[in-house]
Every structure is written in structure tokens, then in C-alpha cells.
Amino acid sequence: MTEKTHLPATQPKNKALDWLDERTGWRMVRDLADHKVVPMHAGTAWYYFGGITLFLFGIQVITGVLLLLYYRPSVAEAFDSVRFIMTRVQFGWLIRSIHSWSANLLILAAFVHMFSVVFTHAYRRPRELTWLTGIALLGLMLGFGFSGYLLPWNQISYFATKVGTDVAASVPIAGPSVARFLRGGEDVGAATLTRFFAFHVMILPLITFGLVGLHLLLVQFHGMSTPSGISPSQLAHMKFFPNFFLRELVVWYGVLAVLGTLAAIFPWELGQKADPFASAPAGIRPEWYFLAQFYTLKLIPSHVWFFEGELLGLLGFGLLAAGWVALPFWAAGRNGEHRDRLVAGAGVFLICYLATFTILGYVK
Amino acid sequence: MENRPDSGQDRRTVISWLLGGGVAASLASFFYPVIRFINPPAVAEASINEVDAGKAQDLKPNSGKIVKFGNKPALLVRVSDTEWKAFSAVCTHLNCTVQYRDSRHDIWCACHNGTYDLNGRVQSGPPPRPLEELDVKVRGDAVVISRRT
Amino acid sequence: MRAPAILFLLYCSLSIASARDSCMTCHSAMEEGTKGPTTLIKNDVHISHGLSCADCHGGDRASDDPSVAMSKAKGFKGKPARTAIPKFCASCHANPDIMRKFAPSERVDQYELYQTSVHGKRLAAGDANVATCIDCHSVHDIRAVKDALSPVHPLHVAETCARCHSDKVKMAPYKIPTNQFDEYRTSVHWEAMTKRGDLSAPSCASCHGNHGAKPPQVESVAAVCGTCHVTFQALYEKSVHKAIFSGRAPSGLGGGGCIVCHSNHGIHQPSTAMLVGPNAVCSECHEAGSAPAQTAAQMAAWIDGLDRALKQSETVLARAEEYGMEVSEAQVRLLDGREDLVKARLALHAIDPGEMRKPIDAGMAVAKETLADGQAALREKDFRRWGLAVSVILIGIAILAIRFLLRRIETNGNSEVRGPQQGPL
User: Fold this and answer.
1) Is residue A174 part of a domain?
2) Above 0.85 for ipTM, yes or no?
3) DSSP string of C278-312, one letter each residue
């Protein structure tokens, strides 16, 4: 039995669709979409994570716009406006808690997506640009997390931002200017809030929309990658529309259920209004996605040989980041052979480092 | 596809409708909170900077009343026909609520006999700091108390 | 060249002459004993006003010759006898013309008050063991009362009095107890002063007077307490206890009035345990089962009841707040209830249950209202959880629907597409 997607042209319903097609060419897009397939193999499940990340980003945009209807980005009113959302606006508690939880799930999903790409070696030629745009997007998501965290203007977010920008300031040469640019001045204050709001609500979204568009376009162009060593012709494929997409909807519904549960049972706390003259709360630390680096810096002794410890740490992170970004380029040998084992090893090492130091950062 | 008896077909249709209804209901359960959210709540202001303190004619000259300002009490004093004053009514000694004393034209705290003058300054007794003064604006018959900026 | 040099020397010698203080110069070079004051006076408030040794002790400070500097002809008084100290200080401090020059708003009646005090009377009778000016204010390093290091700064007054009054040996001849400071340190007033920094809290001088120090008489105790605790005094004066407690000095306690129930120095946080129970103050006079005892029990029950009701509301509201519910309005109302409780405890002092009824009823109404608000907030929280459960179920149904749909469209295996497939573009 054929599906209803290709109705005979004489059906009256199609007159409207014909009108649209003549003017927009939508059927061309539909036909292209119809050709999209997903290879089926042991690692097919990992393909979901790109979509999950995208879905969560969509949730962030929607809930973010809704919050924007009530949030006020000034030092005097930010905290009270968030409290207003949590207590007076209908379902404000839900929208805000979903936004906060989804931010964390989004970053987690982005990391899982990245590591799944690493272990399935999907960064290989010709997909290097997809990798680069993806890494840039991960960086943007972390930027969203950092800038958004300050917006409720409570004690924890104020001091976490202070610590974070202090770390940025200690980068040699460029550090102080970068920190000044981020803070909008010498200290974290009203200027910082305005600036972070601009980053979070306009600048980062604009860049992200552009990069996401590019990233998705590249994915459609190259198609889904298959694990190394297996030729695509050897594999069965599943149509993306409607089959894989329906499955993806199931996954997205599941994510919604998780989000709703988290928001209702573990509402995101309001905290206390930021008081710049109070001492930093004991045990102040950044959010979990910055914790590993933060804890590493804490562990490094203040002086190693004649180098300043923190400088060495930052240098190390910089080198690590540069190496990671350039992964597709060193993962392929001179003769085009794949250094799969090396990459997998690097991936495992990175996961272990991040996981261990994040946990340590919490426990200590 | 196998042949199914008609009752099976009916059952499938019923299930289809039920499931479709479920999907529609789930979507509704997402849109319902969003629609309610977008609708502004009754109290449209977030932080309390301004509070309606009632009608001017309700307060006689040389009298005062307590008005809720955010989640703290405020004291509105009508000094004369045309002069109004407002203060935070939280005594700076041990946080009792102060009151206006028309016999002495001052503000008195019953707990430990602290008194303040009509500028909020401590006149006598244990309070260590003056009362925070608030702005009063009378627009027609409406009296509005607002925080000093 | 010579003229400027001579002028310079002249200038030096003149300035040295005008600043010459032979007292300081000689005594600071001495051995112990008379050297002491020269280091102490660095902190003295008199020195900061430009006064010096000779201004109190007399003599001529411009002369280097001791027989001139310390001659009676120049008014040298030397070290005064203990019994003469107050008059010594009063020679300036009781003289408005002199005090006006240095501190115009200072009082000048300290000596007059001192002479009415127990210390002053005994000193006049020749007892040199009682306190004189220098015992409290120190000597040679006298600091202003406002100075945090002054022994008569409000925070230090009690310690200063205790130096003698907690000394058993010293107090033995006068038969005065020595437990006052220890008791005072257990009191709410001491706590207010030391823990909360409330300088308006009373210490010894606030009730006993400082220069005119005398214990308040039985009649005046309520007036002394009433300087701060105004409303309590007003109610007490109207109550039956006033007549009964006046003129009464129960054993072990120094007076009547408020002290009968609340003690004098070791005043603790009052509670309903003072009304009923094993440590009840009321039962010291009233027999169990008597009408007054029953009144006490009734009032205690009301106060405890209101406190419990308010606590219950507070707990419920706090829980609702933790769940993110908006309860600030109810919490403000609850403050009114707390004030009603304070008013009820206040009304107790009229010993008339009718006085207490009003605030108790008002407070209970507030407690009831706020409890209802808190419970409504908790119900709203439950509604949210149910709402979540419903949407999760609906999501479950939607997932089933999609899987059902998938099964339907895939039973004829049309999901798989074989052959080399890359991107659609």
C-alpha cells in the first residue's frame, strides 16, 4: 500500500499546494528531503544526539523569548523580575525552570553529540568543516551558559561571574582586555549585566542561528556519515522522513517528559539578591560545565619552576583546545590512513579527565 | 498486509483516534501554559517601587495609617491638608511596626518607646537609625507611595 | 649672616620656652613611680584639650627648678588624698565658667550628684575604700565616655562597677552581695549590648545612676524599668500587683515592683514557664488551684496557643515558599500576628484576662488566615505535580501513537532503502 504523500494531481486539495509550489518551489525541497536516509548499524542510536541538541536549543529559544516578556536587565530589577516570573506570572515557574534545566541538558547533549562524532569518526574528510562549525557551536553554547547564568543577578551568579572573568583576565597579553570587554568595565557590575544580556539575547543567538544553519546544511550536503571501515553500500538505510523522524519525535517527547519532571520536582532556585559588598559565598564555584577547568586551575601550584601556575594551566587548556579543534586534520595520516585508535584514545582520555575533575570539583 | 476482520479494523480506527487525541492533548498541554504565561498577571509590576495607598479623602489631617509596601509595612502620615509624609514603618531598633501619634505629631514605637520626628529622625529611645523616608504623590484623589530614587 | 642665625635661635628658644613643660621633662626622666603618669597622659582627653599636669596639680610648669615648679606659692597641690579627690576634680568640672571654655554642653552637676550617692556619703564620713572619680574614670589616662576604650563607655560600665562590687573581700564590711555582675551577664540586657551592639541596653548606671549611684528604692523600681518599658509600667501601675509589691522587699531580692517576678540583675527572657509549671513565679505567692493561679494558667495557655498557631503557619508558609510558591503577602500578615502575641504578653501585666483577650483573638485570626493561605499554596504545588503527571501520561500516549504509526507504515518493509546512498543534495 502506498503512502498518502504522493496524491494524484487531480485531487482538489492539491490546487492550493500547486499554487504554493509555483511561487515557492516547496515541492523541490520536499523531494530532496524525501531522499534523506539514515544508515542502520550498531551506532545508529548516536545519530539522535544532534537532533536532541537542536531540539533543546529550540526549547531554549522559545522559553527564552517568553522569559524576555517579563525579565528586566538592570541591577535594580533583574532579581525581582525573576522572582516575579517565578511567583506571579502564570506558569512562570515552569517556563523559568525549564529554561534553566534545559540549558544544562543542552550542554550535556552537545558534549555527548561531540563525543559520539569522535568515536564514530564522523569528522573525517570531507566533513572537517562540519566539525569546525560544531566546535564553534559548542563554544557558543558555553557562552550562552556563562552569560545567561548572570542574568538572575543572585549571589551565586554574581560571584561565579567574578571568578570566571578573573580567570579570563589572567590569560597573558590579551586577558585583561578581554576581561574588560566582557565585564564592560573594571568590575562585574551593572555594565556587565547589560552586556551579558546583549550577548545572551541578540549577539550569540544571531551567530548561532548562522552557524546552526551552516552546520545543518553541511550535514544534508554530506549525508549521514558511516563508521570507518564500512562502506555505505553495504548498509541498510532508513528513510529520514517519516521513519527516522517519527522515531526522533519519540525521543524529543521523552526529553520533554524529563524536562517537565525536573522543572516540577526540582524547581530551579531563586537564591538571594546579589550583594557586591558581601563576601563571596563559601565554596563558590562555576557551573558544572566549567568545573573541571576551574578545579584543575585550583590544583596547579602557584609556581611551577619559574612559571606562574595559573598561566601554565591556561596555556595547557589553550593548547588542548587548539588540538581538539584541529582534530580532523591530525586524525588523518599523511597517506590518508585513519588514526582511529589514537583519536579514540584521546576521546577516552578527555572524557575521563572531564568527568573526574568535574566530580572532584563538586566533592571538594 | 494480512487480512483483518472488520472488528479488527474498527478497533484499529478507535485506537488511532485515541492515540491521535492523545497527541493532540499532549500538544495542548504544552501550549496551555504558554498561553497563560503570555497573559499578564493581575499585579503587573515586579519589584515594588510604587504602591497605591488609597484615597486622599480617607485620611484626615494629623493622622496616619499603615500601608503594605511590597512585603514590608509603610506608614503614611497626612500632616496637614496639603502635606503628606511616608516612611518605612519598620522600627530600626527591633523591627516592630511604628505608628503615628497625633497627640505629639511624632512617630512612636510601642515596643520600647522609641520616637521619631516627622523627618524620620530618631528623637528619643533606643532606635539606632532613622526611618527610611518614602515619596508621596497625590494625584487628584489617589495617593501613591513610591521609593525614593 | 649673623642676623638670621640669631633670629633663628631666638625663635627656637621662644618656642621651647612656650612649650616648656618642666613637669613632663623631669618626671619622664625619672625612675618608676612618678614616671608612670607621663606615659599615661598621652591618651588623656584633658591633654588633647591643651591642658597639662600643672592645670590640675598646680605649680609652675615653666620653671626648671623643682622648688619653684612645685611650690605652694605657685599653687602646687601635689597628689590629693583619696577623700579629697572628688573635690579636686570638681574644682573644674563643677565650674560652668571653666567647662564652658572646653566642652560647653558638658554637665556640671556630677559632684553635686556624687555627694548624694552612697559612695559620696561614705567618703564624706571618712571611708576611703569607696569609689571616687578616679576609680571609674581612671587617672592620667582619662578617656572620653564615647571612647571605646574608656572604662565608663556603655559597654564597659558593668565591668568597671564589678571591679569592686564583685570583690567579696572589699564588699564584706558593707555586707553587700557580690553576685550582681555574674547575674547581669546572664541577662537579656547584657546580651543585647554585647551580642547585638545595642548601646541603649541598660547596664548598672542606667538603673542605679552613675554619679548619684544609689539602688532604686522599692517605689521607684517600676519607674526605672519604665523608662524603656513604658507600656509595661503603665499596665502594672493599674494592676492589683502594684499595691501589693510596693513597700515589699522579699528576701534575697533588693526591692519590689518588677523585680518581684523578673529579678533585678539576672533578668532573663520571660516565657510562659514563669506563669505555670515547676519554676512558675506566680506559685511563689498563689496556691495551686486558687483563682489567681487559674488565671495565670489561662493566660499561659492563651499565649502558648497563639505561639503554636503562629509557628504552624510559619512552617507551612516556609514550606510553600521553598516550593517556589508566592506567599509573601501571607508572611507579612503573619508579622501582624507576631505583634499581637507581643501585645498579648504585654497585656499580661495588667493581670486582667479581659485585656489579653483582644490581642489573642486578633492573633488567632491572623494565624488561621495565614495557615489557610499556606495550605492553599501547598495545594497549588500539588496541582502542579498532578499537572506534570498528566502531561507525562499524555506524552506517553503520544509516544505510543507514534510507535503505532511507525509499525503501521513499516510492516511492509518500506523503511529500508538499499544501495549506495549518500546525501540527497
Assistant:
1) yes
2) no
3) TT-SGGGTSPTTSHHHHHHHHHHHHHHHHHHHHHH
